[in-house]
Amino acid sequence: MNALEAARKLGCNALQIFSASRGCGREARRVLAEVDALAFRARREELRLGPLVVHANYLINLASAERMLQTRSIQAFHDEIVRALALGADFLVVHPGARGEATAGQAISTVVESVKQGIEASADGRVRILIENSAGMGTAVGFAA
Asked: What is the pTM of this model?
């Protein structure tokens, strides 16, 4: 709710938020109470704020070739989708992650498969997934050259 009020005070017509702690794995599984999500959606409508973008946790690595990390990342991505839908978000931004030892082609295929798995149980067309490029450090997938 604080983000909505801050946006109102600043005269914004759109906003981007984190639905949970942006880097802490423990809070990434946070479930929004329906009453809180409903109040958020109602207040956003009252304030006539336009597009709402939820930015996914930075620890998500949809490109990981390491199976355990990929599985946890898909689950965290799915949880982000669920929270974005609960808040009435229009968009969910996620970074693809880092490829590690995989080739760029393998990593891109892994990202595609990870996104498909993450949205499988929750996709209903109400939130669009935006894959954001990154600064290009290390083995990041989707860096801007």
From this structure: 0.87
- The DSSP line for 102-139 is S-HHHHHHHHHHHHHHHHHTT--SSSEEEE--B---TT
What tens digit of pLDDT does each residue of 41-99 get?
A: 999 999 999 999 999 999 999 999 999 999 999 999 999 999 999 999 999 999 999 88
Cβ contact 81:88 at 8 Å: no
96, 111 Cβ separation under 8 angstroms: yes
d(CA 17, CA 91): 11
Dihedral (CA of 40, 42, 44, 50) sign: positive
Contact (CB, 8 A) for 28 and 21: yes
Of 89, 88, 97, give the one whose Cα is nearest residue 55.
89
